[in-house]
Design goal:
heterodimer; A: 454 residues; alpha+beta; PmbA/TldD fold; 2 domains; 6-stranded antiparallel sheet; 6-stranded mixed sheet; B: 468 residues; 7-stranded mixed sheet; 9 helices
């Protein structure tokens, strides 16, 4: 990576170029990233990818009109071209009285621990060894494991800089890495699959044995699965499933959806929306959360906020636009998918509160029901506007307060608002899960859910 | 610029491409390739009757891969300058150990990119804003219960040049235009949504007929759902609508035919070529050349000319879908299905336009023969796990079938099943064939795909609704 100062200078130059191109206000968000990915299969390296990229996204405001453009050329000439496109884009947009850059904000919090040196220190051979160790752990985990479709290690080290005509000027560095695999187990004429994963700031923080063993355990636990009968019953959602649902709820709490009448939580601010067993926070400052950062995608300082606490909906997630429209302060939730996209309201790290029982305790409390360990079809089976959902699921039955035989090929259905009210208890241990964004959650016991099977 | 007679954009001239390929092979390897791309586009949306989210921009870059002893080494860079390309080649070759390998001299391939009648870049952006305003008005005019409408317009151009150590030098020039509309309808506390899209591998001419029609359709779907009852849960005969109903075949079978899954024995169709997998009435294709279709290109992203591949012939499995790497392993030719999202991704076997060929039945006939069942007219999307064959689909527009007639509208339905059983249970295919556009995600890569079919009936499938 080039010296950090270059990136900050490029951001500042992008702002100046946009003003020169006719913008009244401007903002530039520059990113420089080094990424790497290793894939292994059958104890051999399958592919090795290494890449660097850098680019800038410029927002330009002309009165109440806003436009955006991005580019990968950070030379003076390239920045001018991108800034001019952004100003041109603004001239096409309609006037919006609430549009404008965020006002001057206080200094962002200091946040240590976002960058782990092991990402850069580990060479490709060592990264490959880690992926191989993950695969080996799954293959050796159980005799019934027939193969691993793919084991993957991926990491990235990123530097972000932002500048604006209203005085934003900051930068930070982060790193992250993931390892995951899909193990296959023979099951009668067919097969079952199981996912294992781990995530950390750097490869030194990953446990290849645990990741491989999880995939093997998940695949083997599904052997002989049958379709359950249709009914209404309690369900324990494992951490991956609970995280997916927490992510969906986080997205429906984004103020832009609420303001535009496209959220089931519209008009519910301050009201009782959940059972007292459920607490949900948005926390951008936990160094273990891979979505943490000192400031958001438009330079506003990040924080930690209760979304649902004491049964009530405490706040929506805001960026500067939605905050201005509601007459409140931005919550620092302007998310960016990279320099190629405009900021949009999104959760940072979602944290579901823990309860008093371990997983066995939740089974006991559920007595009869299903333990859902995987859901599929979330992008097509959930309506974020109405909150209704019906998704594919697999897992095991719960009988007599204990985990019983595996079940698959069923659906769970309901709506997100009722789901919050139906939470009976949460488990005592949280886990970070890369589903639904970045989520830390314990398993969750829901009192009643519709199971569609035979 | 375009090479004399070759018909494709030369983002990198042949002599430079040859040098980059040679550099990529300097530490050995049985294959090397450089893939260069320039992407540009414009998107804008309308929401609350206000044009917003106007976004322009572009980027160019290249990906270089070297295959050595079966291991793929890949590096990508932003920029198409000689120094950028050489850096990518050096990085890709960094972990390859061996003596220098040779490549064949490059020969320009004859390529005919899809013709674009009205390049979107030639149309003023203000005209696109006007189009969105007209779409917005049309959708809202469908009734006072339409309380929200949002629509998005996007145009994208991808110019591609690819060269490899087998002597291939090729390229493509692709322009896609798409319009999507979401309507929200409300009646007291009931809120429902409807979504419709129109897209093609074509220019702005796509939107010169009647773009407002999809706003009308989206609003119509949302309004219909206001009267909907909770969907049933249980196993029953299902009739699937034409057009985007083809996503069923895409998920159920198409993914399992992609050779990467097959070769890892992670597909339920592995080892079943030539076997009977469906009733003899079923014929299905992947066709990457259908003129103007959303999943169409002149070449795939490895330079192989696109082709039409029959995957199911009278109920028998006839072909998998290959890219170069997997075709080499099976000692067959690539079927032109090596695709990538951008120069930042490795090509993998992907579908293009996948469809069930039209049958002899009338759609009404398929429905009339069902006593008690479900009519899944359109889907929000779906997902499959190729290794197990388990799939799930979200139904965006569904109805009950009672005594051979389509009756009550249903909301919140999901179809779930296993592809081996469900494909074998297709007992009727209608002649009202239609293609629709979609995006397909796999391995973190999103590519445009076409799906199609006429009405199709499945003897028995699980419907997952909220009414038990």
């Amino acid at each position: 990576m080039a010296a950090g100062g270059d990136l900050e200078a490029a951001a500042r130059a992008g702002v100046e170029a946009a003003i020169d191109a006719g913008a009244g206000d401007a903002e530039a968000y520059a990113v420089e990233e080094a990424t790497r990915e290793v894939r292994v299969h059958e104890r051999e390296l399958e592919s090795l990818t290494a890449a660097t990229e850098r680019g800038v996204g410029v927002r330009a405001w002309i009165g109440g009109r806003v436009g955006f453009a991005y580019g990968t050329d950070l030379s003076a000439h390239g920045l001018r071209a991108t800034a001019t496109l952004a100003a041109e884009a603004a001239s096409i947009a309609d006037e919006d009285e609430h549009a404008g850059p965020p006002g001057a904000a206080g200094p962002p919090p200091t946040l240590d621990g976002l960058r782990d040196g092991s990402v850069s220190a580990w060479g490709p051979d060592r990264a490959a060894d880690l992926a191989l160790a993950v695969e080996r752990a799954a293959l050796g985990g159980d005799d019934r494991i027939t193969g691993v479709e793919q084991a993957v290690y991926a990491d990235s080290a990123e530097r972000v800089a932002i500048a604006s005509s209203t005085g934003m000027d900051g930068s930070y560095e982060t790193s992250s890495c993931y390892a995951w695999l899909q193990a296959m187990a023979a099951s009668g004429d067919g097969r079952e699959t199981g996912l294992g994963f781990g995530m950390a700031r750097g490869p030194a923080g990953l446990d290849p044995e645990a990741i491989g063993a999880e995939a093997a355990q998940r695949a083997v636990s599904m052997i002989g699965a049958v379709k359950p009968e249709s009914r209404s019953c309690p369900a324990v959602l494992d951490t991956t499933v609970a995280a997916s649902f927490a992510g969906l709820i986080g997205s429906t709490l984004a103020a832009d959806s609420v303001q535009r009448g496209r959220s089931p939580f519209a008009g519910k601010l301050g009201e009782e929306v959940a059972s007292d067993a459920l607490e949900l926070h948005d926390d951008a400052l936990d160094p273990d959360g891979l979505a943490s950062s000192p400031f958001d995608g438009e330079g506003v300082p990040c924080g930690r906020r209760a979304l649902i606490e004491g049964r009530r909906l405490r706040t929506y997630l805001h960026d500067s636009y939605t905050a201005r429209r509601d007459g409140v302060e931005s919550t620092g939730n302007a998310g960016r998918a990279g320099y190629r996209s405009q900021p949009s309201v999104s959760a940072s790290n979602l944290v579901v509160g823990t309860g008093g029982r371990d997983l066995a305790g939740l089974f006991e409390q559920a007595a009869e029901g299903v333990y859902v360990t995987d859901v599929a079809g979330l992008h097509s089976g959930v309506n974020p506007v109405t909150g209704t959902f019906s998704v594919g699921a697999s897992g095991t039955l719960i009988r007599g307060g204990e985990q019983a035989e595996p079940v698959r090929e069923f659906t769970i259905a309901g709506d997100l608002v009722s789901l919050l009210g139906a939470v009976v208890a949460t488990g005592s241990r949280r886990r970070w899960v890369p589903f639904g964004g970045s989520v830390s959650t314990p398993p969750v016991l829901v009192g009643e859910i519709t199971v569609g099977g035979s | 610029m375009t090479a004399e007679g070759s018909g494709f954009p030369e983002l990198i001239p042949a002599d430079l491409a040859a040098r980059v390929v040679a550099r990529a092979l300097r530490s050995g390897g049985e294959f090397a390739e450089v893939y260069a791309e320039r992407r540009s586009g414009l998107s804008l949306s309308i929401d609350e009757s206000r044009v917003e989210g106007v976004q322009g921009g572009g980027e160019e870059g290249a990906g270089v891969r070297v295959v050595s002893d079966g291991i793929t080494h890949f590096a990508h860079v932003d920029g198409l300058g000689p120094e950028d390309l050489e850096r990518a080649a050096t990085e890709a070759a960094a972990a390859v150990r061996g003596g220098r390998s040779k490549s064949r001299p490059l020969r320009a391939q004859q390529v005919r990119p899809e013709p674009i009648r009205v390049p979107p870049g030639d149309v003023p952006a203000t005209e696109k804003a006007e189009l969105l305003r007209a779409v917005d008005e049309r959708g809202r005019a469908q009734g006072g219960e339409v309380v929200q409408l949002s629509a998005g317009y996007s145009e994208a151009r991808r110019e591609v040049t690819v060269a490899n150590s087998d002597g291939l030098y090729s390229g493509d020039d692709r322009t896609r235009v798409r319009l999507g509309v979401q309507a929200v309808a409300r009646r007291e506390d009931r809120v429902e949504t409807g979504f419709e899209t129109l897209g093609a591998h074509r220019g702005f001419e796509l939107l010169q007929d009647d773009p407002g029609l999809i706003a009308e359709q989206a609003a119509g779907k949302a309004l219909t759902l206001l009267d909907a009852s909770p969907a049933p849960a249980g196993s029953m005969p299902v009739v699937v609508g034409g057009g985007f109903g083809g996503v069923l075949f895409h998920e159920m079978t198409g993914h399992g035919l992609e050779a990467d899954h097959v070769q890892k024995d992670a597909s339920v169709y592995a080892g079943r070529l030539g076997e009977r997998v469906a009733e003899p009435l079923l014929n299905a294709f992947d066709d990457g050349r259908l003129t103007g279709e959303w999943g169409t290109d002149a070449i795939d992203d490895e330079g192989t000319l696109r082709q039409k591949t029959q995957v199911i012939e009278e109920g028998r499995l006839t072909s998998y879908l290959y890219d170069r790497l997997r075709a080499g392993r099976d000692d067959v030719a690539s079927t032109g299905n090596g695709r990538r999202e951008s120069f930042r991704h490795l090509p993998i076997p992907r579908m293009t336009n996948t469809y069930i060929a039209p049958g002899d039945a009338e759609p009404e006939e398929l429905i009339a023969e069902v006593k008690q069942g479900f009519y899944a007219k359109s889907f929000a999307g779906g997902q499959v796990e190729p290794a197990t064959g388990d799939f799930v689909f979200g139904v965006s527009e569904g109805y009950l079938i009672e005594d051979g007639r389509v009756t009550t509208s249903c909301r919140g339905a999901t179809l779930i099943g296993n592809c081996i059983d469900a494909l074998a249970a297709i007992d009727g295919v209608a002649d009202d064939f239609e293609m629709k556009t979609g995006f397909c995600g796999k391995g973190g890569q999103r590519v445009p795909v076409g799906t199609g079919q006429g009405h199709v009936r499945i003897r028995r499938l699980t419907v997952g609704g909220t009414a038990v």
